[in-house]
Amino acid sequence: MSNHIHLIVSAKEGDKLADIIRDFKKFTSKQIIKAIEENQNESRKEWMIWMFKRAGSRNENDKIYQFWIQDNHPIALTSKEIAGQKLEYLHQNPIRAGYVWSASEYKYSNSIDYSTEIEGLLSIEKL
Q1: Domain residue limits at 14
Q2: 38 and 94 share a domain?
Q3: Residues 51 and 82 placed together within one structural domain of the fold
Q4: Best label site of 13, 17, 120, 124, fewest CB within 10 Å?
Q5: Contact between residue 118 and residue 112 where contact means Cβ atoms under 8 Å apart
Q6: Residues 62 and 97 occupy one common structural domain
Q7: pLDDT tens across 41-97, in order?
């Protein structure tokens, strides 16, 4: 999705999911900001950097930029049925948004991993 991300993640025993999400947000925000700053052909570059700086200045947890919002909406997947429902929701999200006709057509979805023998953009562990 262009303005948010859905993940199904788990933590190994002894690791905290909150720490993993924090580190994910930290790493990806730095990489995305760097990519925007280095892209000389991005017409919205100055505006995006200004928006991220403005958000960062309003949040004491951020030093300069704020890319991700501070919270998330975790849902415990306590059964195979709930996990399947949430996976289907993720796969249908780009269709509901009008980006594609079929879930496996969305480049950033792992739906193709579940519906064909083709591997998607990222390596995954199937549920």
Answers
A1: 1-74
A2: no
A3: no
A4: 13
A5: yes
A6: no
A7: 889 999 999 999 998 888 887 678 889 988 888 888 999 999 999 999 999 999 999
